[in-house]
Design brief:
2 copies of one chain form a homodimer. Chain A has 10 helices and 5 strands. Chain A is of the alpha+beta class. Chain A folds into 2 domains: 163 residues, Transcription factor LuxR-like, autoinducer-binding domain (Beta-Lactamase), CATH 3.30.450; 55 residues, Orthogonal Bundle (Arc Repressor Mutant, subunit A). A 5-stranded antiparallel beta sheet of chain A has the order 2-1-5-4-3, with helices on both faces. At the A-B interface, helix 4, helix 6 and helix 10 of A face helix 6, helix 7 and helix 10 of B. Chain A binds a DNA duplex through helix 7 and helix 9. Chains A, B: Keywords: DNA-binding, Transcription, Transcription regulation. Chains A, B: One of its GO terms (molecular function) is DNA binding. Chains A, B: This is LuxR family transcriptional regulator.
Chain lengths: 240, 240
DNA sequence: TATTTACTCCCCAGAAATAGCGATGCCAGA
DNA sequence: TCTGGCATCGCTATTTCTGGGGAGTAAATA
């Protein structure tokens, strides 16, 4: 694969200055041209399952993806969500039937067979992906990712920075912080303790514990304990 | 500030091959030399408050830090934990009395007054920091970070990768996959639905739903619904 | 000093979850 | 073919959680 001679440095510098969505799109197009790949996408996955992103995927595929809620079966999402590091799509689990149907459909919509995705995380459980996608054979792709991994990681980082600038309301999705006792309670509940066990562990009455759970629930906007624990987890307020 | 002429590329390549702790330490020393800074540290902060890391901080300071449990007041930890992006120490909140005492003590132990820390995150709320630290004036430091930000981000990434290799038990654990219906159930529970609501949403009887919850609980080794949802979340089996 | 925040404790009634035993049919892989 | 996993439905009794009250202390903050 030949890589064009626009420098990534230039594009990153431009991206850093970018102050409109158009200029970001422009950067992504330049980068696609530079790396000479089919697609390049930044994809934000919200804790509420909301999605957001920009890139070069065909619009009808993006619409289809959203409409079918493919995020729930997309192995790229699932795989990156579990990992720290950039992932080659080949290494993902495509074995399930639904997933293979999804893959076939994606290719029909013009998505390349090869892909390389970089997971990006932030506080409050925020999660995004930067993906490079192409149609070629395994060896070519291997060589491409080997060669460009470092730059792609950096680019992912820069796109994420820009995404936050443009969608600041997605960043401080943080809720009121939990008090230490509330964190204790949520943490112990998340590791499977019953209320009685938690109360005993914290050496407080079960009634007191309940007050913590309730206030945590309130702070987290949760409708029950399970919901509260789930939110605390996905916002990174507790870690299990 | 003069930057020595060992190339970062070389060090990163060496780091990639590193298979002993010594070689990692060696890489960190080379990098310190290259960037000509006082200290360079990779610091992992575990969910349980466990710590782990390597770098060039004086051993007595590291010991002191651990012993005093300074992680609880360290504004670098607090600040990076809240942010996505590299942070200059100057931008952190040093206003509290305890924090200033901490800072004074750190400097006495040989820590530079300037610092630049890069937060790194992974699944399950894992969190680490890569820090460059130096003694100089603000303008010099500004110029240094401006110049080297990109490389530092990459380096942070590589150190994190190595840290995971050497501490595989810190990586997320695998478990039996959940069936589609189990995923549905767990997901809806995680977003706050009660059993009745979930059953209605999935158009199944509450009893059937219960069977799913129970089998998911069993697969996840969870002792109750909240626990099961927490595990499903932190293993990336569901996304909320 | 006044105010807020966190932490602790108490009662009660009704709603929800859990544990125990069932059952049938379908589909895929060994 | 048969085993195992998946999806679906049923009953009963017990335990646990939730939501509605109220109240006092200590510490930090304004």
């Amino acid at each position: 694969m030949v890589v064009a001679n626009t420098t990534v440095e230039e594009v990153l510098a431009a991206l850093e200055q970018a102050d409109t969505l158009e200029s970001i799109q422009d950067a992504i197009l330049k980068l696609r041209e530079h790396f000479n790949v089919d697609n390049m996408v930044y994809h934000w996955v919200d804790s509420a399952g909301e999605q957001y992103g920009y890139g070069t995927y065909p619009l009808d595929w993006a619409a289809r993806y959203q409409e079918q809620n493919y995020i729930r079966i997309d192995p790229v999402i699932a795989g990156c969500y579990k990992r720290f590091h950039p992932v080659d799509w080949k290494k993902l689990d495509w074995s399930s039937k639904a997933v293979r149907a999804f893959q076939t459909e994606a290719i029909a919509y013009g998505i390349g067979n090869q892909g390389y995705s970089i997971p990006i995380r932030g506080p409050n459980g925020q999660f995004a992906l930067f993906t490079v996608n192409h149609t070629c054979d395994d060896d070519t792709w291997e060589e491409f990712t080997e060669t460009n991994r470092r730059e792609l990681i950096l680019i992912a980082h820069y796109f994420n920075q820009k995404a936050l600038e443009f969608e600041p309301n997605r960043a401080p999705e943080q809720s009121q912080p939990l008090s230490p006792r509330e964190i204790d309670a949520m943490t112990l509940l998340a590791i499977g303790y019953s209320r009685a066990q938690v109360a005993e562990t914290l050496s407080i009455s079960e009634h007191t514990l309940r007050v913590y759970i309730e206030s945590a629930r309130f702070k987290l906007g949760a409708s029950n304990t399970t919901h509260a624990v789930a939110r605390a987890l996905s916002r990174g307020l507790i870690v299990v």
